[in-house]
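Re: [ENG-882] Designed sequences occasionally contain unexpected residues at chain ends

Forwarding the minimal case from QA. Structure tokens:
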């Protein structure tokens, strides 16, 4: 999808050459003289016969019952005299909070999809333009236009190919200039972000037979087309050589060979410590010998959404080129029951040397992640973040809104938390008290892979923590946020690409600032 950003006056919008025009109506737009009055829904005949001005339309629209109604908050006008765009859709911003913007855009977009499905060029007018609102608008439009077609040739891909964002023109003061630059930069980031989210959604949605470990490896190799990205894909032999006994034990039950994907994005100098991202890449989770019940098992094709989010972030990094180093690690395999599969009670030796008693073969995500975490140590990372559809218990705790966040260090937790708030891709921190690790004790190995049912997301995180030593580590449990089981956006969400990308961009900027302060410069 092609995005462009233009600064304009409200009434110059009348001449904008576009298909549909979506106008977001700010709560502060209500003219004082119109307050309190409501009239019947505006029809196109109601617009001034001489040609309407956009501000007239907004004022009239605000008096319509439709736009004020709590349920739709949208209105559509066809063939408005004096306005090139057709149709014109209004969506009320409600209380004007970032979440309201998202809701208004979603409502406006669904009206567009049903009433003007053939629209190829959409313009969106954002009354209160900020870096955040520009990015939210881009993400909502892109998410709403996304149609999965890869294994459904009968589905028609969206025809919406061009989106123009209109923002009120700013003045010439230094403050306005700075604001304009800020918005333009956010626009660039927003573009990289939607590309990354779309890539993560695409791979998340592909069925397991179209997204095997081998195919994920190929998808990663495809990203090596970006000049700053290098990719290596290791197979069973190399992984055995590394001593990843825990990862290998999960892959044993499957005919599909495992892959360990190692990606490097080199955006900063060699001496700058990287952020390492580790994504759980279980391309299908049957539970293994501890077999899952049949109902809803198809959704376990999404068990590689952590991996997909790492691929998505790399796609965004390739597009944007920020000044930071990032390593992406993806252990990818299937979890299958088989004559050769790992059995409950089996003890395996992880790359770290710690032995693990596998008390439930359905707790396989942590078994592939732990070896990747050990591998990550060699990069001396400034931070390491793993992303995993790790526990059903996380859905019980947080539902589908917030991802679970675990971090040993407060600073990293706060940085990730605020990245999630900025991008409307929120997470919530859960505790890591040592007492939660009690249940992982085993009589037959250094640790068991599961404890009892209570606090299942936390005990999973405590298991992972055994493999990160003193590293600055965080874990995101995206079991509830990575996909939707029903509704308009059914399928992969591409989360938490927005959170991760925003965190990385902030890190990159902080790094540039600290290395350019004189006292830090080497003589
Ligand atoms: N991939 C699942 C977690 C999951 C389940 C994510 C449902 C999203 C929806 C994971 O591998 C798993 O099976 N976890 C078990 C752990 C248990 C055996 C300790 C779970 O959550 O039931
Ligand atoms: Mn499982
Ligand atoms: Zn799993």
């Amino acid at each position: 999808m092609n995005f462009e950003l233009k600064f304009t006056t409200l009434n110059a919008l009348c001449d904008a050459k576009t298909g549909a025009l979506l106008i977001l109506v700010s709560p502060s737009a209500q003219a004082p003289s119109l307050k309190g009055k409501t009239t019947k829904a505006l029809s196109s005949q109601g617009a001034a016969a001489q040609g309407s001005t956009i501000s007239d339309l907004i004022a009239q629209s605000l008096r319509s019952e439709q736009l004020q109604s709590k349920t739709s908050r949208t209105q559509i006008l066809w063939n408005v005299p004096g306005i090139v765009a057709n149709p014109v859709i209004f969506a009320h911003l409600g209380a004007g909070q970032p979440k309201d913007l998202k809701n208004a855009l979603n409502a406006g977009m669904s009206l567009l999809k049903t009433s003007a499905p053939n629209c190829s060029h959409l313009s969106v007018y954002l009354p209160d333009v900020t870096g955040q609102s520009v990015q939210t608008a881009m993400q909502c439009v892109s998410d709403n236009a996304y149609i999965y077609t890869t294994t459904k040739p009968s589905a028609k891909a969206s025809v919406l190919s061009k989106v123009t964002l209109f923002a009120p023109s700013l003045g010439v003061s230094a403050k306005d200039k700075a604001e304009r630059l800020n918005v333009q930069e956010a626009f660039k980031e927003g573009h990289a972000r939607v590309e990354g989210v779309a890539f993560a959604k695409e791979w998340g949605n592909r069925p397991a037979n179209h997204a095997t470990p081998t195919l994920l490896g190929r998808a990663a190799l495809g990203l090596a087309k970006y000049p700053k990205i290098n990719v290596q894909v290791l197979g069973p032999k190399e992984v055995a050589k590394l001593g990843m006994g825990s990862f290998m034990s999960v892959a044993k039950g499957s005919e599909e060979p495992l892959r360990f994907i190692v990606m490097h994005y080199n955006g900063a100098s060699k001496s700058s410590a990287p952020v390492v991202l580790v994504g759980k890449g279980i391309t299908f989770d049957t539970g293994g010998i501890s077999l899952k019940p049949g109902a809803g098992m198809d959704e376990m094709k999404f068990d590689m959404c952590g991996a997909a989010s790492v691929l998505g972030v790399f796609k965004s990094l390739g597009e944007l080129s920020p000044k930071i180093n990032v390593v992406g690690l993806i252990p990818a395999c299937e979890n299958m029951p088989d004559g050769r599969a790992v059995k409950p009670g089996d003890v395996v030796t992880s790359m770290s040397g710690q032995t693990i008693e596998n008390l439930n073969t359905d707790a396989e995500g942590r078994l592939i992640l732990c070896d990747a975490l050990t591998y990550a140590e060699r990069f001396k990372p400034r931070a390491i973040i793993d992303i995993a559809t790790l526990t059903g218990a996380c859905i019980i705790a947080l539902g589908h809104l917030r991802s679970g966040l675990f971090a040993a260090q407060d600073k990293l937790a706060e940085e990730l938390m605020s990245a999630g708030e900025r991008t409307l891709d929120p997470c919530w921190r859960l505790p890591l008290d040592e007492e939660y690790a009690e249940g992982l004790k085993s009589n037959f190995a250094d640790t068991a892979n599961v404890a009892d049912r209570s606090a299942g997301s936390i005990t999973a995180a405590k298991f992972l923590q055994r493999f990160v030593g003193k590293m600055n580590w965080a874990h995101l449990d995206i079991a509830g946020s990575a996909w939707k089981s029903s509704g308009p956006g059914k399928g992969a969400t591409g989360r938490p690409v927005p959170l991760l990308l925003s965190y990385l961009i902030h890190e990159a900027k902080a790094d540039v600032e600290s290395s350019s302060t004189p006292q830090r410069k080497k003589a």
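QA comment: On inspection the terminal residues look reasonable. The first strand starts at residue 2 and ends at 8. Proposing we downgrade this to a documentation issue.
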